[in-house]
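Problem 12. The chain below contains 381 residues. Write out its predicted structure in token notation.
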Amino acid sequence: MKNIKQKFIVLFLFIVNAATAQKIIFSSSTNPNNPPDVQGGERIIQKLKKLNIQTQSLTLVSEMDVTELSFVYSAVVNNTVSMFYVKPPYKKGAQYKDEAFAMWGAIRDEFFGLELRNKGKIIGYPITDEFKTPNKSGAGQHFNAGSIYWSAATGANEIHGAIRDKWAALGWENSWLGFPKTAEILTSDGFGRYNNFEGGSIYFHPHLGTYAIPNMIKTVWEKEGKERGKLGYPLSDEIIKNNNSVQLFEFGAVISTKAGAYKTIFNSLRGSNGLYTKWKETGGVNSYLGDLVTANKNYPKMYKYHFAEFEKGYIYEDGTKAFVIKKGPIFNYYASQGWEAGRLGLPIEDEKTTADGTIYQGFQNGTVYYTKALGAFERKL
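Solution.
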């Protein structure tokens, strides 16, 4: 939402030498009955002296920012530096200090560019001066409700809210994400937000949370249609376990097994109890089926629905539900009868065991049994 401001002392000029000035000399005021408070100007002079910025004249503007609930003093020095001072008292939760702060260069351009992009001062006013990033070549500046970071490769980009919190938790620019490459962007469906970084992206959804996606997983996710596609929004960060890389999404997962190529599994119908839902029921990243072998595949004669192979079995779905067929005698018998295209059809339940140890599994057109004595055999429905 754009800041709504009421200007009380709109414009006045003072002459100052930053190295020697002891007072502000006002040449005029738009409201002679309400002379300007010199505190803002004094704080700005103090910071100019601290930064050793030389100037002969500048224009100071005093505004009541009703969003911040404070008077804000701003000044432009030599047409290259912008100074801001937010006067106490501050609204609850604000991080402002009784100090003026300076902006210049690309970070200053990005700050004012936010207003030009119809976002208003969504990150508030500065609470630090610009600083050099400690371990990588770049710069940053913190604001009351966000930050702007710059590097030569990425330019200057703002970051705020839950996405900034996530980036900070991962280690700022020193994390695998690196510097932000974009400001915050609205997702195509209008519900989420994201920032792109050198090493990936961070996505936010108000009901699903905030998660980081590495570039290699993001590339696969984008091919599947991103948040509007087969997988939906992310539901986890990347999970590394047993030398596998997995990231969970609303309706599917992107999986790399033993550092191999990334593959996807997903429900054929987004909200159905399909293949992906069944995989999670088997333990997900800790599934008793083991590692993924082949991603979703269409049945040869039923293109709408899918199956996937794992180390120790298969998951078959029919669009409304899914079942596991473990590798072993029952599956071998099922394969000998032509799989889902044969007379048995699709599975209608998971494998079960009777009290006497007989293993069986039901299919659309029959039940397959297995005992050590008899092997696999069928009873037709």
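Discussion. Confidence is low (pLDDT under 50) at residues 1-35. Students who got a different answer should revisit the alignment rule from Section 12.3.
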